[in-house]
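Issue: ligand-bound run for phosphoenolpyruvate - logging full I/O for the record.

Environment: standard queue, default settings, no custom constraints.

Inputs:
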Amino acid sequence: MLVAGNWKMNTDRTSAVQLARDVVGAVGDVTGVQVAVCPPAVSLDAVFEVLHGSSVRLGAQNMHYEDHGAFTGEISAGMLRSVGCHYVILGHSERRQYFGETDVSVNKKVKKAREYKLVPILCVGETLAQRDAGEENAVVQTQVEKGLAGVEIRDPGEVVLAYEPVWAIGTGRTATPAQAQAMHAFIRGLLINMYGEKVGFAMQILYGGSVKPGNAADLFAQPDVDGGLIGGASLNAADFGAIVEAAVAAS
Ligand code: PEP
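Outputs:
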């Protein structure tokens, strides 16, 4: 199980350091479950100092697919490595929706992240209109297959998937455990097709979309739900800690 907090565009350097301290205080010695926080880029190095020596890992929320160069405002995989990142969230629906990211650009990012030994948390998920039209499996299949096209995975820990139905992100509307399990099992099948039984079976598939202390246990009890990508609730260390505890109890 992995529980990762996506802080999005919240916190400044001071409050990020404080939140990281609170998270370490709440879950810094947890064993049996992997924990990560993904603060805004300006606070990555400061948060890394706080996490150092704890079991909580650092992740970024995005990166560019080139090594370096004239890409004003962008951040490279090497830069993320240099401030201690282990994970990088890629293809989040907010990036696809507001910043024009496509399966092609996300795929380039996944490949570059792997080149720098970062673990991508590749986000996939359908919109409400796509689900209402019965297209959710086709949409997610395209995102998984195009996002991972040409990406070699030998060790299941090299890439993490996150299923985040767009209609559940920040809306307070969570997928039911059965809806989450059905899609996770579908994604599991795709990964087994692409990488074989051994690797596909062991890759982590996180659920994301309004996970809270009150619904985490039921979601994590599903056989193909290997943890969560947590947005809003990760900004409160007690709530995030309770979600991590639910993962510990389920693992
Ligand atoms: C997210 O943005 O990855 C997310 C899951 O957000 P929330 O938990 O707030 O729905």
